[in-house]
């Protein structure tokens, strides 16, 4: 998730990306971060031990260890994102399977990143559908 400083130096969410992974380790986190975050950026995390390795890959690390404190006070934007994702999955799909997990995450991020531009949502969705390679039904129901 990226954060942007707005009026009066107040921080707000700029853009979010998610990736389904089998394991969270330094290599996986570094590879994902390199593909979605500009080198030299400050990466704010919850202090999980895999994140300090990002400094070796050209990022600055700002750990915010939650510990016994409430996560929504330490990383409020991340907490909001995860809460919205949980509501999306449980409210729309009532759970989901592993096979298409990345597509569900992509859909959620697409909607999340355009939540402030709802008037453009239909046109952007139509354009994305036209530009995206089609998936045969057999690939969806295997």
- Topology, number of strands: 4
C-alpha geometry: globular
- H and E order: EEHEEHHHHH
DSSP strand content: 5-15%
Largest sheet: 2 strands, antiparallel
How many domain modules?
A: 1
Major sheet strand order: 1-2
**What is the distance, rounded to the nearest whole angstrom, between the alpha carbons of the first and last residues?**
32 Å
Low-confidence stretches: none
Going by helix content, strand content and strand pairing, the class is alpha+beta
Rg over C-alpha atoms, rounded to the nearest angstrom: 17 Å
Number of helical stretches of at least 4 residues: 6
What's the average pLDDT? 85
Structure report:
- The protein is an alpha+beta fold and 142 residues long.
- It has one domain (2-141).
- The protein is built from 6 helices and 4 strands, in the order ββαββααααα.
- It has helices spanning 26-36, 71-74, 76-93, 101-113, 121-131, 137-141; strands at 2-5, 11-15, 42-45, 60-63.
- The strands form 2 sheets. It has a two-stranded antiparallel ribbon with strand order 1-2.
- Helix 3 crosses helix 4 (101-113).
- It is globular and about 45 Å long.
- The mean pLDDT is 85.
């Amino acid at each position: 998730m990226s954060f942007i400083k707005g009026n009066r130096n107040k921080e707000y969410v700029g853009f979010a990306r998610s990736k389904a992974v089998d394991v969270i380790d330094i290599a996986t986190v570094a590879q994902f971060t390199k593909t979605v975050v500009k080198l030299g950026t400050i990466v704010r995390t919850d202090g999980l031990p895999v994140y300090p390795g990002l400094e070796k890959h050209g990022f600055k690390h700002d750990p915010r260890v939650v510990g016994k404190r409430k996560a929504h006070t330490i990383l409020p934007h991340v907490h909001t994102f995860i809460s919205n994702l949980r509501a999306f999955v449980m409210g729309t799909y009532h759970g989901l399977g592993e096979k298409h997990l990345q597509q569900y995450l992509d859909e959620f991020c697409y909607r999340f990143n355009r939540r402030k531009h709802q008037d453009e949502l239909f046109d952007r969705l139509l354009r994305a559908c036209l530009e995206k390679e089609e998936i045969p039904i057999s690939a969806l129901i295997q």
